[in-house]
Write a structure and sequence with these properties.
- The structure is a single chain.
- The chain is of the alpha/beta class.
- It has one domain: 3-Layer(aba) Sandwich (Rossmann fold).
- Helix content is 37%, strand content 18%.
- It has six helices and six strands.
- Strands 3-2-4-5-1-6 form a six-stranded parallel β-sheet, with helices on both faces.
- The protein is globular, with a radius of gyration of 15 Å.
Length: 165
């Protein structure tokens, strides 16, 4: 299990980053910890009804309005979703400042930087709001150098072999 107040990052092109984060969420909830998951870049339909079945032990938050993944949206839709995702980031910062949870998972938050929704400095500002009592897990495909400095553990998820169905 994670050290007190640690920051973990799961990144890479491979599948499994969110799954690894969810595994940590289940462990933390099993230990009686409060877990919040804020999902980005996936649209509101990503986890479906399954996420609701984990509440109240694990609370899921999505601020995007579209059912589609961000990459599939038109430019106008992307602009609207950028504002929604920034609201999600502001919510995450509030959660960190107030210490509302023991584990905060920011699923695909690295994609916000990679897609130009926020700057790496904005993500760093969020991480600076973390208290010693809160653990953070971040996921995404691309990890910039500036964010690496905030991580206690970094896991690069890569495909070694992939078969098609």
């Amino acid at each position: 299990m994670m050290e007190k107040g640690s920051v973990q990052i799961y990144y890479g092109e491979g599948r499994g980053k969110t799954n690894a984060a969810l595994g940590s969420a289940l462990c933390a909830a099993g230990e009686g910890k409060t877990v919040f998951i804020v999902q980005f870049m996936k649209g509101k339909g990503a986890s479906g009804d399954f996420a609701q079945r984990l509440e109240p032990d694990i609370k899921f938050f999505r601020f995007e309005k579209s059912d589609e993944y961000y990459e599939a949206l038109s430019d106008d839709e992307k602009n609207e979703e950028k504002m929604n995702m920034k609201n999600g980031l502001n919510f995450a910062k509030k959660v960190l400042v107030t210490g509302e949870c023991n584990l905060l998972i920011l699923d695909e938050v690295l994609g916000l930087v990679d897609n130009g929704v926020i700057s790496s400095e904005e993500l760093e500002t969020l991480l600076q709001a973390k208290t010693d009592d809160t653990e953070i897990i971040m996921t995404g495909r691309v990890l910039g150098d500036s964010v690496r400095a905030y991580a206690d553990e970094i896991y690069h998820i890569a495909v070694e072999k992939q078969t098609t169905c």
